[in-house]
Amino acid sequence: MATRGLPAWPHFGQDSEVLPEAERLLLDAARAWAAKGSAGPMAAAAIVLAAGGTEGAALMLDPLLRSLPTLHLAGPLCPHITETESAMLLAVSAAQQGSRGLSLGLLHRLAPPLTAYRALPLLVGLACALKRSGHVLAAAFEPSRLPRGL
After folding, report:
1. Chain centroid, CA 15 distance in Å
2. Which of 125, 85, 93 is closest to 109 using CA atoms?
3. What is the mean predicted confidence (pLDDT) over 128-140?
4. What is the CA radius of gyration of the chain?
5. Ramachandran region, residue 149 (left: φ > 0; alpha: ψ -120 to 50; beta: rest)
6. Beta bridge partners of 80
7. d(Cα 110, Cα 76) in Å, to the nearest integer?
8. What is the pLDDT of residues 67-103, one digit of tens each?
9. What is the C-alpha separation between 11 and 102, in angstroms, rounded?
10. HSE on the CB side for 25, CA within 13 Å?
């Protein structure tokens, strides 16, 4: 089976330092949430989000990340983006653009079906909170460029 020409996940394996500002803020907050810190996960994420002017988004980020069992978040200093981090960033971007179906499909990569359905309102809330504060994730996808098997 030929593997040349298959689309790649946007952001996957990319250097996290070259992400646009909104994606970088969300990724840094999620990674801070996952890191073992003395302040606790929600406080660590809130500090990162407060630095970007959107501290209220931590109220949606915490339950969302808790509900995604297969989301693998790398360490805060990891230079590359994991496949599941890429799916999370794309899901938030799709929600900001009003594509709930695509957001749900991306959540299915991170959680079983019922859990993904329950996580969708949290994802939409997070996307809206980021958008209200001026952090709009870039549309890194076009339906024709998405990998198959979503």
Report:
1. 15
2. 85
3. 87
4. 15
5. left
6. 15
7. 20
8. 998 999 988 888 888 889 999 999 999 999 999 999 9
9. 17
10. 28
CB-count burial class (<10 Å; 0-12, 13-18, 19+) for 43: middle
Share the mean pLDDT of the chain.
84
Q: How far apart are CA 79 and CA 97, in angstroms?
A: 28
Judged by average pLDDT, the poorest of 31-45, 57-71, 135-149 is 135-149
pLDDT at position 6? 44
Amino acid at site 143: P
Place of tokens 């952001």: 11
Closest by CA position to 95, among listed 73, 69, 64, 72: 64
Residue 12: predicted pLDDT: 62
Entry pTM? 0.83
